[in-house]
Amino acid sequence: MPAAHDDGPRAGRVPAAGRLGVLAIVVTAVLWGTTGTAAAAAPTAGPLAIGAAALGIGGLLQAAIAVRPLRAAWPVVRRHRGLVVLGGVAVAVYPLAFYSSMHVAGVAIGSVVSLASAPLASGVLERVVDQRPLGRRWVVAAAIGVAGSTVLCLSGAGAAHGATDAAADADPGATVLGVLLGLVAGATYAVYSWAAHRLMGAGAGRAASMGAVFGTGGVLLLPVLLLTGGPFVTSPSDAAVGLYMALVPMFLGYLLFGVGLASVRPSTATTITLLEPAVATVLAVLVVGERLGPAGWAGLALLGIALVLLVALPVRRPTRS
After folding, report:
1. Extended strands (E) in the chain
2. Contact status, residue 228 vs residue 86, Cβ threshold 8 Å
3. 105: Cα separation from own chain's centroid
4. What is the Cα Rg of the chain in Å?
5. How far apart are CA 206 and CA 55, in angstroms?
6. Helix, strand, coil percentages for the chain (3-state, nearest 5)
7. pTM of the model
8. What angle (nearest 5°) sits at the alpha carbon of residue 125, between those of residues 218 and 279?
9. SS3 for 259?
10. What is the separation, in whole angstroms, between the first and last Cα of the chain?
11. Are 315 and 261 a contacting pair, CB within 8 Å?
């Protein structure tokens, strides 16, 4: 099995698989960009219920479609069970922290902290744990992407995520709590991306790695869903939202995310998904009719520049799936 690719400056030109991986993650970001608007259509479902339904059901579906690959890769998965558990716990914590952060501190702050901290956490994992150089181009792209995402969300366009932002005027204590929850979300997002990528590099394959990590996370989220998912039973509209969140942005989105992780490093993948608030903003402008100010357009432009830099990153051959 060839080694996982490297974003280092001497790695050569981007192969077709690397470009396909970037495209898969871009589509993932587009799907994730619809989650806030969808969640707003289920006002009686709290953030814990939304998060548990989305990644709980989505994670179990990831495992269901990977039964055969999991059986074939079981020796590798069992040998790296600590990595699977770590990734699964991160999958379970991420949606609870992410949606709670936006609920407590407001969509703009929750989105900025959660999404902007993820690529930074991924970079730290790769540099400290894997001892792999990040490359100057990634550092520049990540800085531009984080800046663009921050400008976009704080310009007020971040509210296009669609949540009813009753926490926008939250007290300082709520804001601090929301920021802390956002940091937890960003860190866990980075951890499960890194864990799945590491399993792929160990020889488990793409489908088995995603099925093991997200299936574990889905199982851990089931008790939360049982305790908080009452609105999905009593309200058909809430149930429809829960199914959409589980099937489209989470199941299909993470299926594509796994395709991307097979040929793109987690630090690059999490940086590309900074496009999520940009997608949510564009949808709000085109569909809802919201207006985007100069700061918002500047944020979109910065995200576009970051994406161009990431697409141009040199990439070695991907791991086999």
Report:
1. none
2. no
3. 19
4. 18
5. 18
6. 75, 0, 25
7. 0.80
8. 60
9. helix
10. 10
11. no
